[in-house]
Task: inverse folding
């Protein structure tokens, strides 16, 4: 079946109305640009004749009801269907408190955006003839009441049933936490593992069994495309952190069944009050990078002495901004060899993170 359609991905909006902004001196996120950046992206996207828009979580700053209300009202005004899933910031608590909505209430806010069944936090939706979206919930509260990235057994069982019934359909999956590793040894790294599903291997096995090739994630705030045996995890950076990106994608399937996905990435260059958003945002991230870098260097696998980490960290102030940019090339020849090799491992294995055309076929593990 010949199939062609165009859609967009905008991730980690962290929408915050001005009176709700949590203004902490060390925060990484420029949440004050969330609404104007979203409006800038939408202004562009409504010109493109999109078939649909995907928002893979962290829709709001901290799950504030007024921010959820603002967003669902704004989404209802768009000229194309929009689908969401919850991020960790959208449902940070089980029971509502003075700041955030209750976990159970999330689907109620987004009935028009995937959640026709408001009794569960995941859904299956036919987007176009022959095209199905599965929206998953990766927010799980363990026995200690802590929020972690995990799909519970009930959701996995439901997923298998939906996939088994989706015969001859192209299936797209959207979930907040990463499914395939985007950083070196991400699932085991003491700082990076929280951005991945705890049971990602189980989900990957199910998706591969049913021939799913495309998963759209957020959470990590970087531009990256990773692949595991033909399953692509396309993660999109955040609108409130450098480089303030969003993606426009076109899928094509010809009469011979060959499938391509073209990816074009765009950036919000400026918003009112931030005319040079890109430069300011990169500096903002660099200015706040020192504690993060010291922690990275002193933790496993490097385990550098604190004094050495503090000495090297200033040279790495743009390290995370470069990774967030996508298609990173990192090399610090002046560093000790062990440290240099470790930093080089964060470079992109191939330059496909921002603008590329993927031929969707079985392949060996890739990514970084």
Result:
């Amino acid at each position: 079946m010949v199939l062609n359609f165009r859609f967009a991905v905008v991730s980690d909006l962290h929408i915050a109305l001005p009176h709700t902004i949590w203004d902490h001196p060390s925060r990484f996120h420029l949440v004050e640009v969330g609404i104007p950046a979203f409006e800038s992206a939408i202004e562009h996207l409504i010109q493109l004749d999109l078939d649909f828009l995907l928002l893979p979580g962290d829709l709001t700053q901290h799950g504030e009801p007024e921010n959820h209300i603002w967003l669902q009202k704004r989404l209802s005004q768009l000229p194309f269907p929009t689908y969401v899933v919850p991020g960790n910031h959208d449902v940070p608590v089980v029971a509502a408190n003075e700041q955030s909505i209750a976990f159970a209430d999330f689907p109620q806010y987004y009935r028009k955006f995937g959640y026709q069944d408001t009794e569960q936090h995941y859904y299956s939706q036919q987007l176009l003839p022959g095209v199905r979206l599965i929206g998953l919930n990766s927010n799980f509260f363990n026995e200690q009441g802590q929020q972690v990235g995990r799909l519970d057994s009930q959701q996995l069982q439901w997923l298998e049933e939906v996939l088994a019934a989706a015969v001859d359909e192209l299936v797209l999956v959207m979930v907040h936490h990463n499914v395939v590793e985007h950083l070196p040894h991400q699932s085991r790294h003491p700082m990076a593992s929280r951005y991945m599903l705890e049971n990602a291997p189980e989900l990957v096995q199910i998706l591969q069994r049913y021939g799913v090739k495309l998963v759209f994630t957020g959470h990590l705030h970087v531009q990256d495309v990773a692949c595991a045996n033909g399953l692509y995890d396309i993660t999109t950076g955040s609108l409130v952190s450098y480089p303030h990106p969003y993606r426009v994608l076109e899928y094509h399937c010809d009469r011979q069944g060959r499938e391509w996905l073209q990816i074009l990435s765009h950036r919000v260059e400026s918003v009112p009050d931030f005319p040079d958003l890109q430069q300011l945002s990169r500096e903002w991230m660099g200015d706040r990078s020192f504690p993060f870098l010291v922690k990275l260097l002193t933790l496993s696998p490097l385990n550098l002495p604190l004094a050495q980490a503090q000495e090297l960290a200033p040279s790495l102030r743009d390290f995370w901004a470069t990774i967030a940019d996508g298609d990173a090339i990192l090399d610090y020849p002046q560093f000790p060899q062990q440290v240099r090799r470790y930093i080089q491992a964060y470079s992109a294995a191939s330059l496909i993170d921002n603008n590329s055309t993927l031929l969707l076929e079985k392949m060996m593990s890739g990514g970084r």
Notes: The chain has ten helices and 14 strands. Residues 3-269+351-359 form a domain with the Purple Acid Phosphatase; chain A, domain 2 fold (CATH 3.60.21.10).
